[in-house]
């Protein structure tokens, strides 16, 4: 065995240990991404993670992203959709590809045990000071987007067209994408022919990419119901109208929407997460407030659930003798997103491209839905616009840890948990390489469908 062969075998073994397919472990792009992570991207990741910012408050984060995109050669506009950043990298004539990354953190006190854990507190848009943490991996998303921009800038001989880099605010409030669209994302800037995004997944092994056509994230709607009663002494209930009793009737009636009004073969969730009313044992309040989250996997089911909530709330008011101008008020739409759907031809094309690059074993193409998480990337893509979209997941946890969790020997930190953490190097390098690969496939010579 010669020295070169031995080195190659050692490199392949190390790649497999890290969850990186051996087929591209020594590839020029893989090497360049890994080198860029060690020299540049890791420092950005550590800074982003230690300094998270809440939704629509991502001013520091946005400035860093804008500066890095400018260094990569993009023309940058800041303040799009409140704090969003748009970077345009043009390289001759060709299609337009959007690469989107979300950048906000969550109101959590971090307890991950990481040396670079956040200790940040910030005044939220509601005026309350809260702890802040990157508990969903958005720090890896924006770091990877910067890495993608840097690689594409260095590989302009391999693609022609325009790449639109979008750093989106307030995904956690599912409001940032809609704000950017309202601020002219598709009219002030080149409208994409395709839109791409990814999410790191703590429940997926490092080195793996989840990608499949069709539904990729559920719809989500935050609903507020305000019930107006007539306050009175708790010992004289006949003198008032009790909003707590009406609220309880609404809560119980809402349970019939999923169990009795949509098909048992369709998915839906109506969860009352908050029920507040009153201040004292012997006082019947004059108001009660409910906060509800609604999830579905189909926009028609979504409409049926939302219409049902309004119908139930208002008719409970009528049942209790409230006048028409005092019926419960139902507020929908302030934190809402439709379902996110991957375009089938685009997904099939990029799946084939990923299989050639990373190997079929690296792809998870038929994973069952395990929850009803939502994603406001939906506002950028079909069926809500005419832009075909692709949203994929990149693994963030070593296979050994996942196996230990399945055996009951370890508890994996979940997304939106104070204990959340992923393997940043493995996540960012794979995501960056995958995104660069997808963009070059769509903007490469001919810009036509990739051959089988």
UniProtKB/TrEMBL annotation:
| Keyword Cell membrane (UniProt) | no
| Keywords (A to Z) from UniProt | Hydrolase, Manganese, Metal-binding, Signal
- Report the cofactor remark: The Mn(2+) ion enhances activity.
Every copy of the Peptidase M20 dimerisation domain together lies at 221-316
Q: List the InterPro entries.
A: Amidohydrolase, Bact_exopeptidase_dim_dom, Peptidase_M20, Peptidase_M20_dimer
Answer whether the UniProt record assigns the keyword Hydrolase to this protein.
yes
The region annotated as signal peptide is 1-25
Which GO terms fall under molecular function for this chain's record?
A: metal ion binding; N-acetyldiaminopimelate deacetylase activity
Q: Which residues are recorded as binding Mn(2+)? A: 136, 138, 172, 199, 416
One short Pfam family name for this protein?
Peptidase_M20
- Entry's Gene Ontology BP terms: diaminopimelate biosynthetic process
Report the cofactors: Mn(2+)
Question: What is the protein's name according to its record?
Answer: Hippurate hydrolase
Q: What is the scientific name of the source organism? A: Blastomonas natatoria
State the organism's lineage. Answer: Bacteria, Pseudomonadati, Pseudomonadota, Alphaproteobacteria, Sphingomonadales
């Amino acid at each position: 065995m010669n020295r070169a062969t031995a080195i190659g075998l050692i490199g392949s073994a190390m790649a497999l240990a890290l969850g990186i397919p051996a087929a591209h472990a020594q590839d020029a792009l893989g090497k360049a991404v890994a080198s860029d992570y060690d020299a540049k991207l890791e420092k950005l990741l550590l800074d982003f993670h230690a300094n998270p910012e809440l939704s629509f408050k991502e001013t520091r984060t946005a400035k860093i992203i804008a500066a890095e995109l400018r260094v990569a050669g993009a023309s940058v506009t800041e303040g799009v959709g409140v704090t969003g950043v748009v970077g345009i990298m043009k390289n001759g004539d060709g299609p337009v590809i959007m690469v989107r990354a979300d950048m906000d953190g969550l109101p959590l006190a971090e307890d991950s045990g990481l040396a670079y854990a956040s200790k940040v507190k910030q005044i939220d848009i509601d005026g309350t000071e809260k702890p802040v943490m990157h508990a969903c991996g958005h720090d890896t998303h924006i770091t990877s987007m910067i890495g993608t921009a840097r690689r594409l800038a260095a590989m302009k001989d391999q693609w022609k067209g325009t790449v639109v880099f979008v750093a989106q605010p307030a995904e956690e409030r599912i409001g940032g994408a809609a704000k950017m669209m309202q601020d002219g994302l598709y009219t002030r800037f080149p409208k994409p022919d395709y839109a791409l995004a990814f999410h790191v997944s703590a429940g997926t092994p490092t080195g793996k990419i989840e990608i499949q056509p069709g539904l990729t994230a559920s719809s989500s709607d935050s609903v507020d119901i305000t019930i107006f009663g007539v306050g009175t002494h708790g010992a004289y209930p006949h003198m008032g109208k009790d909003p707590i009793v009406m609220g309880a009737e609404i809560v119980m009636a809402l349970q019939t929407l999923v169990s009795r009004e949509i098909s048992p073969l369709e998915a839906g969730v109506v969860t009352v997460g908050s029920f507040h009313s009153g201040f004292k044992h012997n006082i019947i309040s004059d108001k009660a407030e409910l906060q509800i989250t609604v999830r579905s996997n189909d926009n028609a089911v979504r409409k049926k659930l939302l219409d049902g909530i309004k119908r139930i709330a208002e008719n409970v008011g009528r049942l209790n003798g409230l006048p028409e101008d005092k019926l419960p008020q139902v507020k929908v739409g302030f934190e809402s997103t439709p379902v996110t759907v991957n375009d089938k031809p685009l997904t099939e094309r990029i799946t084939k491209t990923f299989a050639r690059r990373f190997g079929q074993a690296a792809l998870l193409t038929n994973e069952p839905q395990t929850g009803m998480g939502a994603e406001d990337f939906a506002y950028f893509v079909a069926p809500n616009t005419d832009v075909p979209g692709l949203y994929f997941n990149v693994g963030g946890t070593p296979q050994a840890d996942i196996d230990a969790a399945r055996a009951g020997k370890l508890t994996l930190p979940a997304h939106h948990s104070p204990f959340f953490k992923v393997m940043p190097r493995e996540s960012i390098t794979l995501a960056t390489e995958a995104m660069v690969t997808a963009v070059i496939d769509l903007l490469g010579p001919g810009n036509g469908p990739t051959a089988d």
